Amino acid sequence: MNDGNIMMTKIFARILLFFSRLIVRRYRPKIIGITGSVGKTSTKGAICAVLSSRFRVRQSIKSYNNEIGVPLTIIGSESANRSIVGWLGIIFKAIRLILWKDPAYPEMLVLEMGADQPGDIAYLTRMAPCDVGVLTAIAPAHLEKFETIENIATEKRVIIKHLRPGAVAILNGDNALVAKTPVPSGVIVFTYGFGDSVDVRGSDMMISRDSESSGLPVRGVSFKISYSGSSVPTLLSGVIGRPAALSALAATAMGLHFGLNLVDITRALQNIKTPPGRLRLIKGINNTLIIDDSYNSSPAAALMAIETFTEIHLPLGAKRYAVLGDMLELGSYSEAGHEEVGRRVAEGGVDVLVTVGERARTICRAARLVGFDSGSMFCFAEAMEAVRFLEEHIGPGDAMLIKGSQAMRMERIVKELMAEPERARELLVRQGPEWQKI
Fold first, then answer.
1. Which residue, 335, 368, 398, 412, has most beta carbons within 10 Å?
2. Which residue range or ranges hold the Mur ligase C-terminal domain (predicted)?
């Protein structure tokens, strides 16, 4: 991005900040802010599904979570990209919202708040002070800007630190750094997770199998949700793994705070629209199964994805292919993070390791050092090379976990190997025209 574009972005960001604050003051919606190193978008979707059963709710558009995206959600517009006319239209829409009150404006805004550098969360919470702050996880990510996990923790905790008395903090009790987050006096706290000491607890999680309607060997993830002595079962279809369950538990805590009961909440959870690229189940060519986790990657997210992947029951003789791309923006932690993933691959459950990118070769080296068969690992420079290899080797019943950082474009592998590529725009990430040029 050249200096002119940077300056223009800053100008529009300031304009959008001004109008967004005025809109929030005029309409006074309940603001639900969500941040964390992983799990923001899935948690946003789950919370919106639950609250929409009773309230007028708007969630962050797409994955808009920065100084441009958050105000666009407040205004209710998608990005105009490079169109000056489009941006002027957004500004006029904001002015109309301020001058003429819209009776259909949302009662609640569920806003994803990202942090690429120190100060981002403070900026966003000044724009939209939260009535509820949700902290999903603190883990190594964007370390090129933050340098240490302690700096990441400080940044993410702003979502809780800024809350006023009477506001609500919803914390992932399974994440040690989140659980240690100081909570201001007078703020109501809900913890969630699979541990014994949380308020909203998940248990008995398992992968549900054999859905004739979907044509997949795996239906989704099932588990129990317990709160204050009551317990209800739930099933999330089309997705697997602890991340999806944790998002549902966070949404349960949110629903409980706003007066819904467990039965109503679990019924609403059936309406979750799983975001593309987050441990999503997709039918592959040649009767294979794709676990599409191509949205992004970090060591913590990759470890959790591999753990989930190895729990899937496959037909006798079928193989598991872990297709892993570079994990970016890790700074000095890059080599150690890739090594950690490689060691987990070698612990068992993965039959074939396929990597994409120069950094991901470290995954292979680490796996080999702790005993993974070097004849079952294959390293490629870019995604389409991996596609050609997989097309030649995968067979009926095999499963592929596909995961990597956004810049690695691992969704291209999914698109080439999915049984219904005509559904790519519906099922995969980064299918808009702006991405096809990259």
1. 398
2. 277-405
